[in-house]
Amino acid sequence: MSGRRVIRHMVLYALLGGGGLIMAWPFLWMLGTAFKDLAEALRPTLWPWPRQWHWDNVRATFAAAPFGRYFFNSFLVAGAVTLGVASTALTAGYAFARLHFRGRNVLFGCVLATMMVPFELTLIPNYVLISKLGWYNTHAALIVPWCANAFSVFLMRQAFLGLPDDFFDAAKVDGCGHLRFLARIAAPLVKPALATVALFAFLGSYNALLWPLIVTAEESMRVVQVGLTYFQGDAGAQVHLLMCATAFVILPTVALYFVAQRYFVDAALGAGLKG
Description:
Elements: H1 3-33, H2 38-42, H3 57-64, H4 67-98, H5 104-113, H6 119-133, H7 139-143, H8 150-161, H9 165-173, H10 178-189, H11 191-206, H12 210-215, H13 224-227, E1 232-233, E2 236-237, H14 239-270
Antiparallel strand pairs: 1-2
Helix pairs in contact: 3-14, 4-8, 4-11, 11-14
């Protein structure tokens, strides 16, 4: 390797390393602030590490609010929403891609049009509907309204359109119907797209704040994102405890992303190639 090429690689790695450090610095600041005392946490500085590590902040954080219950509710709601979104996207995406019926394109256009409607516009109608159904302050209010979304249907439709027609023709010759073909052949072939849909659904539900704050009233129904607001009051924020709680809250999302990263990249590369 020539000297010029070595220098070019060194410069490239230095730039990439610097960019990575800049991106990671807020997370380092959050982790460091989680173990500071309140006075040091309120001091305006970008240096992340505390002068003295206060490990008892972890105990104080979990003693201040029932985060065990918050985590249980968040995982229950996010898991149920993920299953719901994956199921509806899988079946609806297959129907729009492989079933031929009158008005299919018009109906799919209506589904896509819902992506243009802001969440804030549907907030009050959804709340009124939940209240009329008697679901206020229940898990159903947190789960049912979000078990389907247009983007997931679109992504799965594109994935099914990318499958060769020969697969279905061969399965049809062997007497395989649509449901059997979907369950045994098509679904395993679109696993990257399905994993991406599940990842987005879990993250969207787990990180939700406004809707859970509106449709829940009791402490036992709160989720972790609402629990973080406990450390912000009229007297100011308990920054050190807030950062400590936030560090624990983001751990599941970071771990999930690393586990599903390969499927996410595969789906992103394959989306939109056909149809």
